[in-house]
From TrEMBL:
Protein name (record): Chaperone protein HtpG
Function: Molecular chaperone. Has ATPase activity.
UniProt organism field: Kordiimonas pumila
UniProt KW keywords: ATP-binding, Chaperone, Cytoplasm, Nucleotide-binding, Stress response
Histidine kinase/HSP90-like ATPase domain residues: 33-187
Complex and partners: Homodimer.
Coiled coil: none
Compartments, as annotated in UniProt: Cytoplasm
Length: 634
């Protein structure tokens, strides 16, 4: 890991604007936990060793036969800290991409949230983490010298963190990366042995490569410190007995392995022996990982084989609907030289995946019954993802339906389907639901009025995924799911609750005449007009026909250009609403077709607005509304 300096030809380059903003913030930071810079450097160095170890397995040209390690050396006289690793290193392009731009989504989010107010911005550091750039909290200038494994040229990157950096060729005998920090005057504390040792044990004890610390140039009493000594535990945390690991150590490992900045909400640590042998250490995050809704839906659990890192991308270790989980699976059965391609459709991986998925599901079930509050927090963050399993994972559909929690008209909290069924009314045979994209709006939907007035509970399903799983899950324990915005509502069999206000209805004959007139006015804009039993407060609403696609689903497909046009809806009118009663009363009059045309359109357009639809002809709507108001006020 030694390095010699030569006179390099250097090139000055500007940081990406976002990086400059970030660096400005770092340089002037008043963040109190500046010590995290070392955690970030060690984490990167350990990842670099893991990467090279893996690449050397499949690329014989890279066989190094060496021991990996991270060396921290302090030169007290020169006021520098050097963090050196013998990992994979970087070539020129990688240096520019990694330390000149913002490649990570986490950091990009950080920069987007920056306000310019340093007190507010400082709090963001803890929330997002800032990776390598955090070195500028403690260093005036930084020199990175690196040589990519397999390359002959080394590169040096130098910066004071102010707008530009310099890059040029360098001399470096061994592959890997050396990072030299010229420590700021006010960051002297980080030159002390006890301080550095303490930081390593706090944040990086679990790192599986040995980390050594040596302090040079101290006074006589520090002579002993000059010798590099291993300061971390060094054993893979997942291989240690649970009883030896503290909650803090688990949490630090979670942050390292998951590139996360939150605390883990829950962990699972166990070992399997027998037919298959592997160790699992998985975490459920508290907050949604940045890439949760990334279309690639990649599983991020790291696969190790006999402690050697193999891959953390697309290993099929967990299904897509558990992609929020972070952690490690270490197999004893896979061959060490397994390539990433071989991992796809691999029977050993498939067996592990099945068993681990069952274990996670079992754990979630236990939490749901024994630690409800914790489970509901997890569900609030990740329920929308877990529900993908209901339509994707047929074999586990019933189990997932049992586990799932939903909002409903029965209060604000979560309910299980089993609890919903237990609350069903005598004559109720279906599980009613409404889907859409906003819980508050759904709760105000006119279509659920008649259900509420009959004491019938309606599930409120605000996630886009709800429309999909409902396609694949027609019932729960024999009780079919029924959309309240589709088909005739068959509510007439169930009496309104005693507390529901009894309202006079327009006579049936008048309503029939009005319906005929409305059909004539609206033509093919509606597929039918009928009297509604699902409305109590609102004059009209739209529903899909019995055979039509659910309206929320149709809107979703249309928004994603999966449907060219939407089908005409059924317009339902409320015979006990004042406006409908007046219209019904006038519908038989001479010339009614003419005089009621505008009001009929208004009733229809109102229903469309309530659905959040845009009107075909807003100016006609405005004209009719003005004219109706004018007449009403005259
Ligand atoms: N010692 C190193 N050896 C090889 N590559 C490195 C080293 N340090 C940093 N890098 C490269 O620079 C990239 C950016 O590092 P940075 O610390 O900013 O973010 P990160 O490590 O990707 O994310 P996080 O901080 O969330 O772990 C890394 O992903 C890695 O590719």
């Amino acid at each position: 890991m030694s390095e010699t300096t030569a006179e390099p030809k250097t090139e000055k380059m500007g940081f990406e604007t976002e990086v400059s903003r970030l660096l400005h913030m770092m340089v002037h930071s008043v963040y109190s936990d500046r010590e995290i810079f070392l955690r970030e450097l060690i984490s990167n160095a350990s990842d670099a060793c893991d990467k090279l170890r893996y690449e050397a397995l499949t690329n014989p040209g890279l066989k190094t036969g060496k021991d990996f390690g991270i060396a921290i050396t302090v030169d007290k006289a020169a006021k520098t800290i050097t963090v050196a690793d013998n990992g994979v290193g970087m070539n020129r392009e990688e240096l520019i991409a990694n330390l000149g731009t913002i490649a990570r989504s986490g950091t990009a989010n950080f920069v987007n949230e920056l306000t310019g107010d340093s007190k507010k911005d400082v709090q963001l550091i803890g929330q997002f983490g800032v990776g390598f750039y955090s070195v500028f909290m403690v260093a005036d200038s930084v020199v990175v010298t690196t040589k990519k494994a397999g390359d002959t040229t080394a590169w040096r990157w130098t910066s004071t963190g102010e707008g530009t950096y310099e890059i040029g060729e360098a001399e470096k005998a061994s592959e890997g990366t050396n990072i030299v920090l010229n420590i700021k005057d006010d960051a002297d504390e980080f030159l002390e042995q006890y301080r550095l040792k303490n930081i390593v044990t706090t944040y990086s004890d679990h790192i599986a490569v040995p980390i050594t610390l040596a302090i040079k140039g101290g006074d006589e009493a520090d002579k002993e410190a000059e010798e590099a000594k291993v300061v971390n535990n060094g054993s893979a945390i997942w291989a240690r007995p649970k009883s030896d690991i503290t909650d803090e150590q688990y949490a630090e490992f979670y942050k390292h392995v998951g590139h996360a900045f939150d605390e883990p909400a829950h962990r699972l640590h166990y070992k399997v022996e027998g037919m298959q042998e592997y160790t699992v250490l998985l975490f459920i995050p508290t907050a949604k990982p940045m890439d949760l809704f990334d279309p690639a839906r990649k599983n991020r659990v790291k696969l190790y084989v006999k402690r050697v890192f193999i891959s953390d991308e697309g290993t099929d270790l967990l299904p897509g609907w558990l992609r929020f989980m972070r952690g490690v699976v270490d197999s004893q059965d896979l061959p060490l030289n397994v390539s990433r391609e071989m991992l796809q459709n691999n029977p050993v991986v498939a067996r592990m995946s099945k068993a681990i998925t069952n274990k996670v599901l079992g754990e979630l079930e236990t939490l749901a019954t024994k630690e409800t509050e914790k489970f509901e927090k997890i569900w609030t963050e990740f329920g929308a993802v877990i529900k993908e399993g209901i339509y994707e994972d047929f074999a586990r559909r019933d189990q997932l339906l049992k586990l799932a929690r939903f909002k409903s008209t029965n209060g604000d909290g979560w309910t299980s389907l089993a609890d919903y069924v237990a609350r069903m009314k005598d004559k109720q045979s279906k599980i009613y639901y409404i889907t859409g994209l906003d819980e508050k709006n759904l709760r105000r939907s006119p279509q659920i009025e008649g259900f509420k007035s009959r004491g019938l509970e309606v599930l409120i399903l605000p996630d886009a995924v709800d429309d999909f799983w409902l396609q694949g899950a027609p019932d729960f324990e024999g009780k079919p799911f029924a959309s309240v915005t589709r088909g005739s509502s068959d509510l007439d069999d169930i009496a309104e609750s005693d507390t529901a206000e009894k309202k006079d209805k327009a006579p049936e004959g008048e309503v029939t005449t009005l319906i005929t007139l409305m059909k004539e006015v609206l033509g093919d804009k509606v597929s039918d007009v009928r009297a509604s039993s699902r409305l109590t407060e609102t004059a009209s609403c739209l529903v899909a026909s019995d055979t039509g696609m659910d309206m929320a689903m149709e809107r979703l497909l249309k928004a994603h250009n999966q449907l060219d046009s939407v089908t005409a809806k059924v317009l339902e009118i409320n015979p006990s609403h004042g406006l409908i009663k007046t219209l019904a009363h006038k519908a038989g009059d001479k010339g009614a077709l003419d005089s009621l045309t505008d009001p009929v359109w208004l009733v229809f357009d109102q229903a469309r607005i309530l659905e959040g639809d845009t009107l075909d002809d807003p100016s006609a709507f405005a004209r009719r509304l003005s004219s109706a108001l004018e007449k009403g006020l005259a």
